[in-house]
Design goal:
Blueprint lengths: L1 E2 L2 E6 L5 E6 L7 H13 L14 E4 L4 E2 L6
Antiparallel strand pairs: 1-5, 2-3, 2-4
């Protein structure tokens, strides 16, 4: 089984972009994708990410990942 996903890029205060893979349906709301990635980042030890929705880059990945225990 293959699963599609979204990439959400969040700019952080250190000037870097942190990219998160978010598993969600094709009709997911961009705001939900943003907050899913942002909360994942916020709970880590990485430098603070900006919580500005307009600063995030969100895109659907055309490829798919093979089924793998860590991808579920």
């Amino acid at each position: 089984m293959e699963r599609r996903y979204w990439l959400v890029s969040l700019p952080a205060v250190d000037g870097k972009q942190y990219v998160y893979r978010v598993y969600a349906p094709e009709d997911a709301l961009p705001a939900d994708l943003f907050w899913d990635a942002w909360h994942c980042h916020d709970e880590s030890a990485l430098p603070r990410a900006w919580d500005l929705f307009d600063a995030a880059a969100i895109r659907r990945v055309g490829g798919a990942l093979p089924e793998h225990p860590h991808n579920s």
